[in-house]
Design goal:
Elements (H helix, E strand, L loop, with lengths): L8 E4 L23 E4 L9 H12 L7 E6 L3 H10 L5 E5 L1
Parallel strand pairs: 1-2, 3-4
Amino acid sequence: MATISADGIVCMTGMLSEQWSIKDFAPMDYIPAGAYLTVYDSGAMRVDSRYFQEFIDKVEKKEINPKIKRIFKLDEIVAAHQMMESNEGGGKIVVLT
């Protein structure tokens, strides 16, 4: 499965608890030779996995209610990205797999 063109750039952001979001994800299996993989890491903060889990638990219990602007299906990823780039979000954009 090709994810980007051979001269494309993939920038990974938003990694929490020093773990990939996709279990056993191996970037080299998906990124073709000649493409670039970059990472944005502020380095200012590391989140221990227990704190991240506590946050998720609070969201599930509705103790924290993030403002969700719109929920997309995975096959609507282009529209989700366009919405994000347009800055019309005004809340979280969620993509369901």
